[in-house]
Predict the structure.
Amino acid sequence: MLPSLLSNVWSIFLVVLFFGGSIFVHELGHFLSARRRGLHVERFSIGFGPKIFSWKGKDGVEYRVSWLPLGGYVTLPQLADLRGIEGDSDVDLDEMPPITYGTKMLVFVAGAAFNILFALALATVIWFVGQPVSSMSASTRVGYVSPTLTLPDESKVISPAAEAGLQIGDNILAIDGQPVREWMDIVQTIVTGSDRTATGNPKTIFTIDRDGESLTTAVYPRLSGDEQFRRVGIDAGYELIVTGVTKGSVAEQADFQAKDEIRTLNGQLVINAGVYRNIISESKGAPIAAVVLRDGNETELTIPERTGDAIAAPLGIGLTTGFSRTYPSPFKQIANHSVMTVRTLGSLINPSSDIGLSKVSGPVGIFRIFHSAAEAGFITILMFTILVNVNLAIFNLLPIPVLDGGQMLFATIAKLRGRALPMNFIMATQSTFVILLFSMILYVSFFDVRRIVRDNLPDDPAPKEEAAE
């Protein structure tokens, strides 16, 4: 009990440190650049709404922590009128000197720039110590093709992958013309795809390598799963390595040994646990011919006939897959996360996509993922923090009022027209988008909470053999 409690406390501490730190770094960028350019800084707040506590610095700035941990702000009266979000200002703007367009751009972009610098610093740590990667996550090879796919109404249809003729062992080179490097690329490209047939059905183009021949085939994804994402019914291919054999088990009788790599069962390529389970189940106790790689040589084994209760019983073999440690450069990490973020944002605004706000994580979902990442290990939380900071940087530069990009848009329009935009227009626009922004946060948070409730319901005891994507 005590170790579990301490683990949770440590995980929550890491969440506060890295999630709160990401917000702090963003606002620090605005703060330092504003001070550097001689702007008056009135307030530095982590969070919105009423303050939890605050203090006045010797520099005259009010530093505070507020109740709504949905971001933060630096009050810069000369830069933008955001009293609807940041609270009233005691400064008389008419008595303050005007600031240049260049200064405005520099201060507005500094928050995103600091997020990227923070992400680069964390990525450098990963580059130095390395990150563990499983053969499954690094794979672009099809290891399992599900025969069926379950639709939202619980009906089953032939899986798009099976219908398109994808085969175990196919190496996926590109999807919709986008090269893929790992399984997560495949998953995300399918999910965020927007191509459709003339009748409006989802469509995805797979470029694969099959036995040295490059092939292009159209696959027609279906919406499936709890979140109704585009899925085609495939799972990654990876080696299955024996970790141990139970004494007196069928596996021991067949002479399986630790470190054996299973190659085939009954002549069928086995590079996925789902295929392994299916072959064992479909044999109905009949003998199974196996080929394993042992000490660099292929060895033939025979799983003996099983009768009675032994047919449904486990073989007594433990399986895992290979792991390696990679050292991706910081710039490659940032580039990969940037592509993922832009692709997701693009799918959100693309009417042909099946991605909507209900499938996006808000503060509640992000906090939950942070907590899971903290429980998984220090490197995992570093990796997720890098993604969050890249997301913050790109999202904040979108030309939406209230965000930094929106302020840059207002400043640019004022520069082009030769005079400032009407204050009433700016305040009305800001207020409208504040309401829209917080409404969006409440909307996505509702679905975050629903996911948490759903995921904590008792598991369905019925086995599921469908592929992951």
Remarks:
- The chain has a mean pLDDT of 90.
- Residues 2-36 form the longest helix (35 residues).
- Residues 2-130+381-428 form one domain.
